[in-house]
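Predicting holo structure, S-adenosylmethionine bound.
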Amino acid sequence: MTRMPVLSVAAVEAAADLVRRCTGLAFSGPRHSALRSGLVKAMQRAGATDPGGYMTALAEDPTLLDDLVAELTVGETYFFRDTDQFSLIRDEILPAMVARRARPLRIWSAGCATGEEPYTLAILVREHGGARDAHILGTDLSTGALARAWRASYGRWSLRGVPDRVVSAYFERVGDRFELIPSLRAAVEFRYLNLVEDSYPSLATGVCGMDLILCRNVLIYFDNEAILRVARRLLDSLSDDGWLLLGAADPPLGDIVPCQVVVTRAGLAYRRSAGRSVSLPSAWRSGGPEARHEFPFRPVEAASDGSAANEPQVPRRRGIRVPELTPRPRQSAPTPPAASEAETGGVPQDATEVVRRYREGDYAGAAELARRLVPRDGGDAGVWILLVRALANRGDLVEAGRACAAALDRHRASAELTYLHAVLLGEAGRDAEAAEAARRALYLDRRLVVAHLALGGALARLGDRDGAGRAFRNAERLLEAVPPREIVPAADGEPAGRLAEIARVQRALLSEERA
Ligand SMILES: C[S@@+](CC[C@H](N)C(=O)[O-])C[C@H]1O[C@@H](n2cnc3c(N)ncnc32)[C@H](O)[C@@H]1O
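Done. Tokens:
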């Protein structure tokens, strides 16, 4: 270990600013001293003594940033944390969803830390027979936490309060460790995802059309601007009737983004605003939540002021400053025009409005327009691609699948449509077919990075670790030749650097020895 680096106030401020921009994490009050000591430890591990040089390296090397973030984030979590919320999910949300869905449920634990939260969801799904084949995704920024989540070996402390029956049904005791049984480990997929980046909703990151999102005890560490941005994207990643649950200490969202706020017996829950993307700002401009939702759950306790217990409660305004009043376009534009140019020689003029709406995140509008355009246009592949992506991004994966099949009838040789087909099959849990479709896409275009990633994901879920590792490595090799900020074709606006990071983390997870 190198000698202790000396940090000026300015150096700590510069680091705080960089970390805030990259991760949304804010450091005020007592957390400021945690930043200083975390910074010192991370610099020592990196062998750095000069703060300026370290900061430059930090901005360029994701592994260094990762190491610092691991030092600065609180990964505190345990199984069945907040039992009220989990009983709400078990008793109300899951049964209602299962009754309405003909497809597997899609559940996302955003900021899953070491995996206790998504595995708790997997246990609930397992116990609720009807929802056995749910697709459960756990994502986090910390690759160290993801590696531990993937290993699924826990100490007693992670299981505090969990009934013995549950422990003996789902864990095997090995020395002083509790290892989750393989079938439950296989029920959760872990991926790297930085919530403050604009990589979702998107098929490319597999985050869209979620029926239930848990993002608990994550926003609490963010600054106001990051809270706003992340809240919008979380809501945009829901299916039309999906649910977003935050932790009890997280900021209430009703006053800062348009959404439906539901008061449940386990606290506030959120749903998309009816009929349109929450990225649109009109309701927000008029201030406050746009609608209050029907009250599907058991009555909340009567309020102390005697107001009717069954009335949905308007959450109190909390001192969150709304930092901007105009919608922010996605930082990196999605690729449809470029992808279409590659395949069709350019998006037809009529499609520019579809592209505009898509870029603004108005996926419902983009899908509606694209649908009208497709038959008139005779089926330009670029417009079909926009249609499929817009439907998927607004959460309608079944319709996206139908549109993709119709598009492929007309454009058998389109590598991008074949890749989208692979992703949609994977999202539907049809992994063997997804792998086959991804291979077909690669046969059409060996250099299609996203198809390598889709193949890797499908093979990993099928348990073919070697095959998955090769696929992720192939993606990494192709990406090495591309400048990190360059937008990758067919990747829905993802830059090469971010995809390389995803491939790297996925490969690292595969090489982790599972318990
Ligand atoms: C306190 S843990 C919450 C774990 C779990 N959700 C729970 O409530 O038990 C917070 C997690 O958020 C993750 N996190 C912080 N910033 C993030 C970001 N920008 N993107 C993704 N994850 C982030 C941290 O790495 C950490 O694992």
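Residues 311 and 406 are 46 Å apart (CA to CA).
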